[in-house]
Amino acid sequence: MQTSEIAAQEKGGNEAVMQLRKTKHDKGLPFMICSETLPSNQCYLEYSDGRILLVAIQSACDRDFTLIRELTLLERDKIRNSFLN
């Protein structure tokens, strides 16, 4: 696959993720952000009001998140710059 094709696919994928994020926020739902730097049972939940929470699932059969903490403004900016731009 050529570099231009890869770039076009990456751009399309990024646009799809951003559309999903907007759709989730429009419905009042959080957008899940997964990171390789977190343990496998943790992720970030971004809400339309700007909050980002660090949460965990305690077991494989658990369906609810446990709040670890709310990210600071500086941490939120860093997450958005890393994953959403």
Task: Please outline what is shown here.
With 85 residues, the protein is an alpha+beta fold. Helix content is 41%, strand content 21%. The protein is globular.
Plain-language structure description:
The chain is α+β, with helices and mostly antiparallel strands and 85 residues long. The chain contains two helices and four strands. It has a four-stranded antiparallel sheet. It is globular.
Question: Can you give keywords for this protein?
Answer:
alpha+beta; 85 residues
Measured by DSSP, the beta-strand proportion falls in 15-25%
Give the radius of gyration: 15 Å
Mean pLDDT: 91
User: Helices and strands: which structural class?
Assistant: alpha+beta
- What is the makeup of the main sheet? 4 strands, antiparallel
Sequence stretches where pLDDT stays below 50 over 5 or more residues: none
Shape: globular
